[in-house]
Specification:
Porin; 12 strands; 187 residues; mainly beta; 2 helices
């Protein structure tokens, strides 16, 4: 219920921002998994859309959504190697930017708050162990979790936004966090 309310609030915020005067952006992301996520996946990559609306000289409200793919790592379980599945993440977040130089340019600090929908699929595999066929069934997993991210960035010229954030995704019993690097073109 809380996740549904949070997702609804994020969607309402994005729709409200879209009706205001601001700057949409389209970006590419690189993600370096940390913690438990780094045990199961490799570097992630994806694309995001964003929206930034200035509210004061040095402050802007932001919204971002996108898709990230984390290729899975194979897991060696003694005599059997299990093929790692790909992880997909759909982040939907809102937050703010504080520009250190003013006038919505240069260096900024940022904070985002929202949800990450996480899913993975490990395909069924058959492996031979001492001449016997061992089959592991297909596994699927999907959940939506609360997420937040502190970050720092820099506006290059008038249209290029380079940002680095530490993305924390709360999951039960493990960590799905990553360092995200976003390069975006602001329209």
């Amino acid at each position: 219920m809380k996740r549904t309310l949070l997702a609804s609030a994020a969607l309402i915020a994005v729709c409200t921002l879209a009706a205001q005067d601001g700057r949409p952006s389209l970006g590419v992301e690189l993600a370096v998994p940390v913690g438990d996520l780094s045990d199961a996946t490799s570097f992630g990559f994806g694309a995001t859309v964003g929206y930034e609306m200035p509210v004061m000289d040095q402050v802007a409200v932001i919204a971002q959504a996108g898709y990230l793919l984390f290729p899975g790592k194979d897991i060696n379980a003694g005599l059997v190697t299990i093929e790692g599945g790909n992880w997909g993440m759909i982040p939907v977040q809102v937050g703010g930017k504080y520009y250190l130089t003013g006038d919505q340019e240069g260096v900024y600090l940022a904070a985002l708050l929202g949800i990450h929908h996480i899913s993975y699929k490990i395909p069924a595999t058959t492996t031979s162990v001492f001449g016997f066929a061992v089959t592991t069934p297909e596994q699927k997993f999907s959940e939506t979790n609360f997420s937040f991210a502190p970050g720092i960035g820099y506006i290059v010229g008038e249209n290029i936004d380079l940002g680095l954030r530490y993305q924390v995704v709360t999951t039960s019993g493990s960590s799905s966090s990553y360092l995200g690097l976003r390069a975006a073109y602001m329209f």
